[in-house]
Write a structure and sequence with these properties.
The protein is an alpha/beta fold. Helices cover about 35% and strands about 15% of the residues. The strands form 2 sheets. Strands 3-2-1-4-5-6-14-15 form an 8-stranded mixed sheet, with helices on both faces. A 7-stranded mixed sheet has the order 9-8-7-10-11-13-12, sandwiched between helices. The longest helix has 30 residues, at about 305-335.
Length: about 375
């Protein structure tokens, strides 16, 4: 198969979808890998690294899209890329369709095959291609939150872990999944007073067993959330409904009950956000203030630590990329059911129910395309 790796063009997105080591694994299986000039530069990989691994370097993004049967990316295509995508071309990347209708419509019009990292699912319901970036984003949420709690950046002027004789900050984490768990570990390690809210008793029992003593668990419901946000210094939104928009657990009217200079970090922003007042921001302009509350809503947080993120992402995606390259997307999905929920749009049809529901659009069962 001919595989293309374009340079990411989203604002301050420095990750690349494939490391030179990953390219070498594909090349030695007989596939051709084209990498755009300087695609890996932001992650510390030069064109020479890819050439040494057996990949071929192309000068422009147009050339990469033009030649490739499968495009491997990190973030969803943005508007300048829409016209480059060909009918029948396989795109393997994060899409988060349910949060952005123009992208969904563009991919429908392209008649490409869109296989989303974030909805590839194992039999135990875990999301193997979302986990590595969720781990990064969860840890970064605390780093960023602690930073923006500083007074010069608009925060309350509070040190997350406090000092002897001074109470630490109160951190509220909405969601006890991968993001929430990693955020809790980081916040607890810095000495904060941490509360994780979730709707699953089973998950909270697990967290209560493994977390240190300064992490508490609490059932997530509107009443409890309204009470807890009154004292919170930092709130991390870590709610995920795979392939669908995140629910608004904190609404705009709730902000008036929060402390002036409190910080919210909504990691779910690329799925629509679980805090109503959150809208996607960039690393260049990461924050804004509403009702005295600092909002940090960067949609590609792991892009700020591209070396770590690129290695972690390739570790997870490469086994699936090899299957797709060796067998083609249809046979690979037939033989590995983990790939089936990853299929979101095929030949102009929405085949993932959560995306169709988000826009009240027609839904076509994916089996239509998988039957021989």
């Amino acid at each position: 198969m001919i595989i293309g790796v374009p340079k990411e063009i989203k604002n301050n997105e420095n990750r690349v979808a494939l490391t030179p080591a990953g390219a070498k694994e594909l090349v030695k299986r007989g596939h051709t890998v084209y990498v755009q000039h300087n695609a890996g530069e932001g992650s510390g990989f030069t064109d020479a690294h890819y050439t040494l691994a057996g990949a071929l370097v192309l000068a422009s993004i147009e050339e990469v899209y033009g030649v490739a049967e499968m495009i491997i990316k990190v973030k969803e295509p943005i508007e300048p890329e829409y016209k480059l995508i060909k009918e029948g071309q396989l795109l393997f990347t994060y899409f988060h369709f349910a949060s952005y209708e123009p992208l969904t419509k563009a991919m429908i019009a392209s008649k490409a095959v869109c296989l989303a990292y974030e909805t590839v699912e194992k039999t135990d319901r875990s999301l193997p291609l979302l986990v590595p970036m969720s781990e990064v984003a969860g840890r970064m949420a605390i780093q960023k939150g602690a930073n923006y709690l500083e007074k010069p950046l608009g925060g309350r002027g509070i040190l997350l872990g406090g000092v002897p004789g001074v109470l630490p900050a109160k951190v509220l984490i909405l969601g006890g999944g991968i993001v929430g768990t990693q955020a809790a570990w980081m916040a607890a390690g810095l000495g904060a007073d941490v509360t994780i809210m979730d709707v699953s008793l089973q998950r909270m029992r697990y967290l209560a067993d493994v977390m240190p003593a300064n992490v508490k668990t609490m059932m997530s419901n509107e009443y409890n959330i309204r009470e807890m946000i009154k004292d919170a210094d930092l709130i991390v939104g870590a709610v995920l409904i795979p392939g669908a928009k995140a629910p608004h657990l904190i609404t705009q009217d709730m902000l008036k009950d929060m402390k002036q200079g409190a910080v919210v970090v909504d990691v779910a922003v690329d799925q629509g956000g679980c805090i109503e007042t959150c809208k996607p921001t960039t690393h260049e302009n990461p924050t804004y203030v509403i009702e005295g509350v600092v909002h940090y809503c960067v949609a590609n947080m792991p892009g700020a630590v591209p070396y770590t993120s690129t290695l972690a992402l390739t570790n997870a995606t490469l086994p699936y990329a090899i299957q797709l390259a060796d067998k083609g997307w249809k046979k690979a999905a037939q033989e590995n059911p983990e790939l089936i929920p990853g299929l979101n749009i095929i030949n102009g049809d929405i085949v993932f129910e959560g995306v169709a529901q988000a826009f009240n659009a027609p839904y076509v069962p994916v089996n239509k395309y998988l039957e021989d």
